[in-house]
Specification:
The chain has about 425 residues and is an alpha+beta fold. It folds into three domains: about 80 residues, Immunoglobulin-like (Sandwich), CATH 2.60.40; about 100 residues, Immunoglobulin-like (Sandwich), CATH 2.60.40.3710; about 140 residues, L,D-transpeptidase catalytic domain-like. About 15% of the residues lie in helices and about 35% in strands. The protein contains five helices and 26 strands. The strands form six sheets. It has a five-stranded mixed beta sheet, with no helix packed on it. Strands 20-19-18-26-21 form a five-stranded mixed beta sheet, with no helix packed on it. A hairpin with a 4-residue loop joins strand 4 and strand 5. It is elongated, with a radius of gyration of 45 Å.
Length: about 425
């Protein structure tokens, strides 16, 4: 009989044998897996299909993507306290600009132009006072960048009184006339923003001088009198322009058409006024003009009918002639703001066609004045010739530009003439 004490030696021997067997089997599996991995690696190397392998079979590093640089722009106007009156300039740090858009909070847009090298963009017009602007730029790689700025309000505003008014029909001598509320020191900057377009390419020029009121004024007259039927459009793109006497805070525009070619020839010698239409004499009216010598004499030279005022009160004290007269006058047609009119003068009837005995105006009978008043239009030319006048009226006393030659007139331009040199 065999006795096995408590069974411990057998049990311990069997556990040891089992562990050794398991270890052996584990080593066999590891060896098999390692062999498979080596075969796989050898296969990849042999095929050369790995992205990290070079032509010589050695492994290579995959190059990293080139870092992307954000689009960067600079704007000449920045912040919340920008002074208006300058164009907006956008500059690109790298690359080329494809598009730039500058808009204000009201939806208005500043047009501009990309430079030939596509590195910058400049607005055609200035940033206006009291506005907030958004700048959106895009380059040729479709990257974009944005900026914004705000302009301060104008300390002083300049305004314009415009003649003629919109949709007027005028005579052949009427100029475009702009009178400014405040002084214009930057005349060239203002003149650059004024544009006259005509239906028949009429040649003309701007000219600067003082209005009869003392204010700065600029007129545009054709080289020759307008041709009947000419259509005229005037654009004053002044918003944001610094006049040197205040900013303009809006644009202006007007348009008009030229009617019948009618011109009046007044002779101080014959005391007759000829009415000429389209080059043909259609009427002769006996008149009495200003008393020769002294303040009551008539102006000579070329004047333009400024307004048809009908019945008005004429007081000699308002034109520096003391108490010579104070009366209601019918069919009054204004030639100068200093008080020269053509009108009915029944109190002077004995002198029509005989003696110049008025206080400077061109007087005629009630009947002649009535029919004449009905036929004339604002802008018609009056030319006074003969002896006994007090000379030619100053250029700003009415529309006196026609008393200058074309070359003399062009010299009054701030861009092309003598005014461009003197400022």
């Amino acid at each position: 009989m065999i006795v096995i004490s408590e069974g411990f030696p057998l049990s311990r021997t069997r556990r040891t044998a089992l562990s050794r067997s398991q270890a052996f089997q584990g080593r066999r599996r590891q060896a098999a897996l390692a062999g498979t991995a080596l075969l796989a690696a050898a296969a990849l190397t042999a095929c050369g299909g790995g992205s990290g392998a070079g032509a010589d079979g050695k492994a290579e590093m995959k190059p990293k993507d080139k870092p992307t640089t954000a689009m960067a722009i600079s704007v000449n106007l920045t912040g919340d306290q920008v002074k208006a009156g300058e164009p907006v300039k956008v500059t690109l740090a790298e690359g080329k600009l494809a598009q730039v858009k500058v808009t204000d909070s009201k939806g208005g847009e500043l047009d501009g132009r990309i430079a030939d090298d596509a590195k910058s963009w400049v607005s055609e017009r200035n940033a206006v006072p009291g506005a907030e602007y958004q700048v959106a730029a895009q380059n040729t790689e479709s990257q974009s960048a944005n900026a914004q700025f705000r302009t301060t309000a104008a300390d002083k505003v300049n305004k314009v009184t415009i003649k003629p008014g919109k949709d007027s029909t005028l005579g052949v001598a009427h100029p475009v006339s702009l009178v400014f509320d405040n002084p214009v020191k930057n005349k060239a900057a203002v003149e650059k923003q004024l544009k006259v377009t005509t239906s028949n390419n009429t040649e003309g020029s701007w000219g600067w001088f003082k209005d009869h009121s003392g204010s700065d004024r600029v007129d545009w007259r054709p080289k020759e009198y307008w041709k009947s039927g000419t259509e005229v459009k005037v654009e004053m793109n002044l918003n944001g322009v610094d006049s040197g006497g205040g900013y303009f805070v809006r644009d202006y525009a007007t348009n008009f058409k030229i009617g019948k070619d009618r011109r009046m020839e007044v002779s101080l010698d014959t005391k007759q006024m000829k009415v000429i239409e389209d080059g043909q004499l259609v009427r002769t009216i006996p008149v009495s003009s200003g008393t020769p010598g002294g303040k009551k004499a008539s102006w000579s030279g070329k004047m333009v009918l400024m307004a048809k005022e009908g019945t008005i009160r004429m007081d000699s004290q308002t034109v520096g002639l003391g108490d010579a007269y104070d009366k209601m006058v019918d069919y009054s047609m204004k030639l100068t703001p200093s008080g020269t009119y053509a009108h009915a003068a029944p109190w002077n009837a004995a002198n029509f066609g005989r003696v110049n005995a008025s206080s400077g105006c061109i007087g005629m009978s009630d009947a002649d004045a009535k029919s004449f008043y009905a036929m004339v239009q604002v802008g018609d030319l009056f030319e006074v010739t003969g002896s006994g006048s007090k000379g030619i009226a100053p250029i700003g006393n009415g529309y006196g530009e026609w008393n200058k030659t074309w070359d003399e007139w062009k010299q009054l331009s701030a861009l092309n003439g003598a005014a461009a040199q003197t400022g």
